[in-house]
Amino acid sequence: MRFLVTGAAGFIGSHLCRRLLAEGHEVVGLDDLSDGSLDKLADTPEVRFVQADLREEAAVRKAAIGSSVILHHGAMRSVPRSIAQPEKTSDVNVRGTLNVLLAAREVAATVVFASSSSLYGDRERFPLREDMTPMPRSPYAASKVAGEAYCRAWWLSFGVPTVALRYFNVYGPGQDPNNEYAAVIPRFILACLTGKRPEIHGDGDQARDFTFIDDVVEANLLAAQMPKEVRGRVLNVGGGQEPTSVNRILAIVATLTGATPEPVHTAVREGDVRRTEADVSLARRLIGYEPRVDIEEGLCRTVDWFRSASGLT
Residues 237, 280: contact at Cβ < 8 Å? Predict the structure, then answer.
């Protein structure tokens, strides 16, 4: 089977390419390399790589020819970046998703759309369920709401099978710690390995549902089978355990690296929410999703990868 993976040179996309090839599938990878890097695909030369912007409708359509499934992970990511650049975030994420759906309709492909837990916004009731009304706090979150709506419309209007996966704080080996908008886990690991002071936004008691990359990849493969019950729907993809505070993450990383970090506390980032916690019961029931890597094991694997990749001890 041929898969088109958008955002293929990014963190999640490159892991998807690797797994798909291991299972014997043909993979076309599309990325504009604005955030991604071909280095992430260095060990997967079998990927037929297409460098193109998601906003280029003809390029997306051409890349999709012959594909049965599109795993749509290309996006302008990051809540802080979306606040700094709301117009571009909307243009890339919304128009780009529309182009993917147009291509899917033309080539009769199904679409798995990478959505985000950020669209839930701040809540007082947990865990977060898919039937809650989205309350986006940032342009990035709003763009994901729009993407989900387009996916549902494509199923109802044109019969294009779609499913949106709402990711909760994905982490793991291969995540870039040097990007200005890098996630907290790779930044903490790099700081602890290099003896630098890690930066914590706010008091560090904000808690997240962290999801290991292998579980996210598995969710994609399960969703790609597109059972009738999930078409046009959204599913939470979380870590399956109690949320972990940012302070606790740093403490675990410090233990794993043998560091004694002295964090620097900075202002809370605009658009950030205080807590996330996924109810994954719907994904468990409809596609058989079962998160298997807890936060301690996931951090251990991630630290080991960073040590190996950087040569740091």
Answer: yes
